[in-house]
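[#protein-structures] MJ: dropping Tetratricopeptide repeat protein here for a structure pass
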Amino acid sequence: MLNKSKVSSKLSELLFLELKEEVLLKIFGYTSDNELYFPIKSKNIINDLQSGDQLENIPVKYFIEGMSFILGCDNQFRYAKEYLRILKKNSWSMQLINSFIAESIKNSQQIDAYVFLRAEYTVDESSVNYEKLISFIYESKEVYNAYKDDFLDIVSEGKNKKYAMAFLYESLYFNDTGDYSSAWDSLNLYYSYDGKNNESILRYKDDLMIMADFEKGKDNVNADPKLAFKLLVPLIDKLPDNAFLYFYIAVACRNLGLYEKAIYYLNEAKSIDDTIIDIYNEIGLNYAQIGNFQEAIKYFRKIFEATKAIDVCTNLIMCYINIGDKKNALLHLEIAKKMNKDDDIVKQLEKLI
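AK: finished. structure tokens for Tetratricopeptide repeat protein:
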């Protein structure tokens, strides 16, 4: 069962009327021991009364609309259980609910359409109605952006029922948030619950595989640079204009001791996007590793002027020490001490000079 929707504030649009027992029995074939009030959208009753209609002549579809609106907004509402029994007892009500959905979509009333889709699923918790509901909320950005918590509740509902589409839309959600590894896991669960392929899903799968490998490779450039290199290099053909791809390959190369190869990939990254500051720092690190400290200094100075980062300052100090430039080494040591005299690297360098 779905949780109470965040859209429940729309209940203020309803008025409540009491139906006599004989009217309730005649219209819905239903009796109740409880006092029942039936919801109706206020604009409908006002329009009809202004047209000269009597209260007792209100069309039945208005009551179906009101009850389904309640169920779509808040299935824990005081009379919700009785409304649900009435709608289930009168199967023709589903046709009306479908018409409310269609009319809302036609009139660009996305939130109302969402409420009626929730009601449809509440009355008939079939996989077909579930798919209609979850696909609508995801694809309607107005609803998705406003009621993302609802979307996650609906995903959870479907997962509990082992509906394949729940896992597909969970995958899409993770993909949207940049959690490609989790998106890949959810997509695999979609298939394990007999999820079917179509052209768009296959295209999504291919794109996701690329991003999942990218994320896994990026996360392993330090912990397992060999694995990272193996995952990332094949992606160059698929992501030729992604500067960060070349950057992460370069970091993996540096950690593997392939410094000149790292510089090559960093220059490729820089040719795509020369605004990524970390690229220049990496180039400096690799030049320092191959003993070209003069070239390393050029890059570290460029970065330090832009960031005033203490780790870049200490890199500069090390380069000056290595070329025997004690004057600049001491000058930058004083700068580093002003930035953070308690930094461990700064303390070590002070002893070294």
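MJ: nice. The beta strands are 14-18, 37-41.
AK: one more thing. Residues 199-219 form the longest helix (21 residues).
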